[in-house]
Amino acid sequence: MKITELHHPSHETVLQVEDRPSGLRGFIAVHSTQRGPAAGGLRMRAYKTPQHALTDVLRLSEGMTFKNAAADLALGGGKAVIIGDPATKTAAQLRAMGEAIDRLGGQYWTAEDMGMSPADMGIIRQSTAFVAGLDRVAFGSGDPSPITARGIFQSIRITAKHRFGNPSLVGRRVAVQGLGHVGWALGKLLKAAGAELVVADIDPSRTAQAGRCLGAEPVPADAILTVPADILAPCAIGGVLNADTIPALRVAAICGGANNQLATPADGDTLARRGILYAPDYIVNAGGIINVATEVLRIRARTAFVEEKLAALDATLDAILTEAGDSGRAPARLADAWVAARIAPPHAA
């Protein structure tokens, strides 16, 4: 295995990982261990180029630092990515990535993310102890997706309260982009709450299935960002809110599970100028890492811990959206400033 350390000014550790026998190519990025060991999922995507993968892992790992701080967890931020189609992944690739993670000696803990499953985490565990999101092990937290979806659902209700004056979702038209583990679970919660769903996924069969099972209106993947709706819930890849897409949005609010939804910080300002209320993604989608944290931090009272942290996240989002309404500032800017204060070293006060 070839592991090359790449130096990046904003990150503590960045590794390029290559294992020819298994065909593994990927990256591991540790953004910060200021609050504790870095934690963040392992993602597998068919990236266009290695540079695209590197850019993604750098942004995602920084986002995990903010997410873990927003949830007030004793964890820093990190992420890992594998380059390739998840449908082609092999146990050898997963074990090789586990070996690379193990060489960091606990500086980074991995867990399930896009293209991965609890079963895949079990294979990675054959090579390293620094993995979470497992089933049937001591402190095992299992699939984090249901908890992530719960947190997003509650955040949508809070966002609706601020944008429409009422948290009820009955009759609200919600456009869900992405029907993976999180998007599908969120869709079920929204349907049960009486929302009218519009859905899209890059896999047309998933979109059609949601139409049948969730009573949703299916639309092509390239149309979901332009459909008229009350709320848009991005639950796929990052960077979907950008200079090209924002002018075409026909929604009153945005609240979803995807990481790094804003392509740049300025895009949050543009949304605010358009009168579109944006719920900062790393607060909205932190339920999954809260669930994983019970495993990494060996929390015995898991249920109570998760419920307490989820309730605190609700309060945080409510406070940020309240201040945004009072001050006229973009919620994303307020959230960044609030979380940065939690990340800062004690002597930096």
SSE topology:
Layout: E1 2-5, E2 13-19, E3 24-32, E4 38-39, E5 42-45, H1 50-70, E6 76-83, H2 91-102, E7 108-109, H3 118-124, H4 145-164, E8 173-177, H5 181-192, E9 196-200, H6 204-213, E10 217-218, E11 231-234, E12 253-254, H7 265-273, E13 277-278, H8 281-284, H9 287-296, H10 302-327, H11 331-343
Parallel strand pairs: 4-6, 4-7, 5-6, 8-9, 8-11, 9-10, 11-12, 12-13
Antiparallel strand pairs: 1-2, 2-3, 3-6
User: How would you classify the quaternary structure?
Assistant: single chain
| Separate helix tally | 11
Radius of gyration: 19 Å
- Major β-sheet profile: 7 strands, mixed
What does this structure look like?
- The chain is globular and about 55 Å long.
- The chain has 11 helices and 13 strands.
- It is 41% helix and 16% strand.
- By secondary structure, it is α/β, with parallel strands linked by helices.
- The longest helix is centred in the C-terminal third of the chain and has 26 residues, at 302-327.
- The model has no long low-confidence stretch (mean pLDDT 94).
- The N and C termini lie far apart (43 Å).
- It has helices at 50-70, 91-102, 118-124, 145-164, 181-192, 204-213, 265-273, 281-284, 287-296, 302-327, 331-343; strands at 2-5, 13-19, 24-32, 38-39, 42-45, 76-83, 108-109, 173-177, 196-200, 217-218, 231-234, 253-254, 277-278.
Keywords:
single chain; alpha/beta; 7-stranded mixed beta sheet; 11 helices; globular
Brief rundown of the structure:
This protein is an alpha/beta fold and 349 residues long. It is 41% helix and 16% strand.
